């Protein structure tokens, strides 16, 4: 069950200009981010001690070392990262991980799964019919061994 919008993510080859826009124009602040294997920033609206206030995840593309990003979120053609093509994914907070995994299996959908370091979140990634990535964030406490085998 979807509870609320969590964040939006933008992939960029210009991390600094993107940071400056979201800081100077929208008033968001750079705050804590898990130690992912690719560059990026989490931009916060409100209390930076609460990772749920990180409303914009800016994903940096390091052309010299794209393996970490490619391994976590998948490949994207950099030529398509203009306009709304730069929107990488839309994320929701949700509950009912095992029910969703069973539902996806019944539909023949194989999601990609991840666990976020230090945040206590278990994620499911799937693609909508338009190629937009949807991320569902569940409390890590809902993850059971049966749901771990459903993805990478």
Helix fraction, binned, reads 10-25%
Sheet with the most strands, sense and barrel status: 8 strands, mixed
Q: Would you identify the CATH architecture?
A: Roll
Order of helices and strands, N to C? EHEEEHEHEEEH
Rounded mean pLDDT score: 83
Report the CATH C-level class. Answer: Alpha Beta
Describe this protein's structure:
The protein has four helices and eight strands; from the N terminus they run βαβββαβαβββα. It is of the alpha+beta class and 152 residues long. The protein is globular and about 45 Å long. Strands 2-3-4-1-5-8-7-6 form an eight-stranded mixed β-sheet, covered by helices on one side. The chain has helices at residues 15-24, 67-73, 97-106, 145-148, and strands spanning 2-12, 29-31, 40-44, 54-60, 87-94, 112-116, 121-127, 133-139. β7 and β8 (133-139) form a beta hairpin. It has a single domain (2-148), classed as Roll (2,3-Dihydroxybiphenyl 1,2-Dioxygenase, domain 1), CATH 3.10.180.10.
Write the layout of secondary structure elements.
Layout: E1 2-12, H1 15-24, E2 29-31, E3 40-44, E4 54-60, H2 67-73, E5 87-94, H3 97-106, E6 112-116, E7 121-127, E8 133-139, H4 145-148
Parallel strand pairs: 1-4, 5-8
Antiparallel strand pairs: 1-5, 2-3, 3-4, 6-7, 7-8
């Amino acid at each position: 069950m979807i509870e609320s919008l969590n964040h939006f993510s933008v992939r960029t080859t210009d991390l600094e200009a993107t940071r400056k826009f979201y800081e100077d124009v929208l008033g968001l602040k750079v705050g804590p981010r898990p130690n992912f294997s690719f560059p990026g920033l989490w931009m916060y609206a409100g209390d930076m001690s609460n990772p749920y206030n990180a409303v914009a995840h800016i994903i940096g593309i390091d052309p010299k070392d794209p393996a970490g990003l490619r391994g976590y979120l998948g490949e994207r053609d950099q030529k398509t990262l203009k306009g709304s093509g730069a929107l990488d994914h839309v994320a929701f907070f949700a509950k009912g991980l095992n029910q969703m995994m069973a539902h996806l299996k019944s539909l023949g959908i194989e999601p990609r799964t991840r666990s976020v370091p230090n945040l206590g979140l278990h994620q499911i990634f799937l693609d909508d019919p338009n190629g937009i990535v949807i991320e569902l964030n569940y409390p890590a406490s809902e993850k059971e061994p049966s749901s771990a085998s459903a993805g990478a």
